[in-house]
Known about the structure:
By secondary structure, the chain is an alpha+beta fold. The protein has helices at 125-130, 151-154, 162-166, 188-191, 244-251, 261-268, 338-355, 449-452, 457-467, 469-482, 513-519, 524-540, 569-585; strands spanning 181-187, 202-210, 226-227, 257-260, 278-284, 287-291, 366-367, 386-394, 404-411, 413-414, 427-435, 486-496, 499-511, 544-550, 556-562. Helix 6 (261-268) crosses helix 10, helix 6 (261-268) packs across helix 12 and helix 10 runs antiparallel to helix 11.
Amino acid sequence: xxxxELPPIQDNPDGGxxxxxxxxxxxxxxxxxxxxxxxKADKLGRFADWxxxxxxxxxxxxxxxxxxxxxxxxxxxxxxxxxxxxGVANAFAYFHVEDEASFxxxxxxxxxxxxxxxxxxxxxRGASRGGNAAGRGGQRGGRGFVPGRGGAQRGGxxxxxxxxxxxxxxESSVTISPQWxxxxxxxxxxxAKLRLDVDEPxxxxxxxxxxxxxxxxxxxxxxxxxxxxxxxxIKYNTTTxxxxxxxxxxxxxxxxxxxxxxxxxxxxxxxxxxxxxxIVIVREGKKVFFDKRDGGPFDTVTVNExxxxxxxxxxxxxxxxxxNEKPTQPETPAINTATSLSLEATYINQNFGFQSVIETAPPxxxxxxxxxxxxxxxxxxxxASCGYxxxxxxxxxxxxxxxxxxxxxxxxxxxxGQGNPQIGQGLATIRALNEFDSRAQGAGGAPDWRSKLDSxxxxxxxxxxxNNSCKxxxxxxxxxxxxxEALKIGYVSRVGPRDNTRHVIxxxxxxxxxxxxxxxxxxxxxxxxxxxxxxxxxxxxxEGKYVLVKDPNRPVIxxxxxxxxxxxxxxxxxxxxxxDDQDSGN
Length: 586
């Protein structure tokens, strides 16, 4: 009978779990293999999980037990607590050194064809031709849902190089100098939460002369279109600081903030803006002035700014053989670029306002308390119909504070028979929408006005509200600020889509500004909250000059601190001297 000998027990004198390293002999065969620790309280879940093995460690588990709890029926993995110390299991992994460099994945498609099923990606033609996932393989009764074999989805397919259109970047409306300091950055989603209710304003001054609106323009249809004429009139768009009436009011300290309705409407409708803009802010003592730059974005009218694919300016061309060569723009830009359309829309708006009033009595023109403050004695051309109303809005939150804003508002005409315009009755603002080419890039899916404006006006209006949401919102806000009772919007189109010099008036719509703002979902309380927030930011800053810039490619506005000579002739002279110094140094 063979004798039984008890195997030697390797005790660990340090009290740790496992044998002591000193107890192994020098020729121990597992001496160079690392040890994976685990806790005695943990259960041994599985020796090997064949469904969760990579190609690298699958060979390591070849000798492991196959009786573990690795996978369930159908290759589904059973969830359970991981073994303590499993994070160091990669120490036992086998790594390919020479084979990995020559390995490449050729195809990861399933080996067999999949027919039918919930996904419907088998034989369904709607998925391959029209982009419709519910093809004939997925749903037996799908012929009625997929007319023309997927044609219902064909109109929504992405166009040629749409990925490049979305990647186009715009330039900022003002050159950001490296010396400017960013003081605040506000995202648009933060502006949406602001609210401030403002009471009815107080009228301080009224200047200018108004002509009556010609009501025959309300009866124009596409069959009785009228040519848009070129009318030589003078209309001013002077910035806040250069307004003599505002200077007089500021000397009396009637308000804290001074601005115009054009600038204020851009700030109140900032969340809808896509194109870049900038507002120059001057802090003098306890007064704040919101100004615009000459030749800036406030002097023109945008076109289809909110369209899915808005009009674009031609890209700057460079010489790849000479990177140092200055980029050049094309000599004759197309008539449907963003800049050309903006100039065309500005021309249409001015002439439509000049043309749609009656300058020969009756009815007579109405003079406000004071004449036009910008019309000098040396001017020879006649003035356009325009009235300026200087109004005070109270933005105070508590009774202890006094934060008021003085706004110069504009009205374009008065409607005969609706009261006395000298006291603010029957006032109207006049604007114009323009159609350029419904098939051109940037048209935003607009229907043809000549065929749809009379029969399907709702479709035309809905498209314009979508493509020009920011512009229409600003017009509504300007009319409400001015206290106008009517907003006249003309529909002006080109005589031919390839000629941007001749236009015709197809129709004119009339609406109440407050109702139109509600239809556009414009919240005046949110706009006043934005104005009050920007005012509080400026009042916290020391005296000086600042600029509020809308990022050209992101829904963000930033407040910069700029030198006092910025945007003036002195600033341009200093830049010219620096350039001359650099040239002389070279």
